[in-house]
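Supplementary Methods. Inverse-folding protocol.

Structures were first reduced to a discrete structure-token string of length 245. This string, shown here, constituted the complete conditioning input.
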């Protein structure tokens, strides 16, 4: 069983590495980070779809059955995701592209997945955490791509930012709190699984503080820009330079 799990993780790691190399060859005029973020975007879309299917259709429901034995599909998805996180953590460390908080998030994710695979249980709630963590990831990557291509300061950029902040607050913080509560009150999960859940939720709050600061600064900047435009329009009208119909 352990050998089969290791082989799945190694195949996953090899697959993500191969995808990264392919993106690098296809985008030779772009940076290595561009290709890495394409891999991250791909994993985000794939993991959202798979984890949503497991949580909402295949089951069991994470809010009522935390600590349940892993299903074969959960094991496959966790191995697929573990290979990705190992790849991305290695990339981030090698290129020194992320700060301590993101490295802590990746490390906790890797340890949490390994823990669920070794125990043979709690894949239900780990899969739910995966869904909550990844649901904002494609938006985060879209935001970066918009910046790189010079299209961030647009209506599309505003929509992406709004959806990112709303989903992060509603899902990772709001729904995440409910999931953590269910994990804490259930007698099934091991105590160290519960500690891992607390640690992941604490990391989400650290991200949340940074996101809220960004959202506040952007909102104030947008408000001042709107006030400035309104003031200019009033001055033009009063001076008779602005035609009105």
């Amino acid at each position: 069983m352990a050998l089969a799990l290791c082989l799945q993780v190694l195949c996953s790691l090899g697959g993500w590495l191969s995808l990264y190399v392919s993106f690098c060859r296809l985008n030779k005029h772009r940076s290595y980070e561009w290709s890495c973020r394409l891999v991250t975007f791909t994993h985000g879309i794939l993991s959202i779809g798979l984890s949503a299917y497991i949580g909402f259709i295949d089951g069991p429901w994470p809010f009522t059955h935390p600590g349940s034995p892993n299903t074969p599909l959960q094991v496959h998805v966790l191995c697929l995701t573990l290979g990705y996180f190992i790849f991305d953590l290695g990339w981030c460390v090698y290129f020194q592209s992320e700060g301590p908080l993101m490295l802590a998030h990746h490390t906790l994710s890797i340890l949490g997945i390994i823990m669920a695979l070794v125990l043979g249980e709690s894949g239900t709630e780990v899969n739910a955490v995966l869904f909550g963590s990844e649901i904002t990831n494609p938006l985060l990557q879209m935001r970066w791509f918009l910046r790189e291509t010079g299209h961030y300061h647009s209506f599309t950029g505003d929509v992406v930012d709004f959806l990112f902040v709303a989903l992060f607050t509603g899902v990772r913080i709001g729904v995440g709190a409910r999931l953590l509560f269910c994990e804490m009150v259930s007698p099934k999960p091991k105590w160290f699984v519960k500690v891992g859940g607390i640690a992941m939720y604490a990391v989400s709050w650290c991200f949340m503080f940074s996101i809220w600061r960004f959202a506040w600064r952007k909102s104030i900047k947008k408000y001042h820009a709107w006030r400035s435009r309104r003031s200019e329009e009033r001055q033009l009208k009063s001076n008779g330079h602005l035609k009105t119909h």
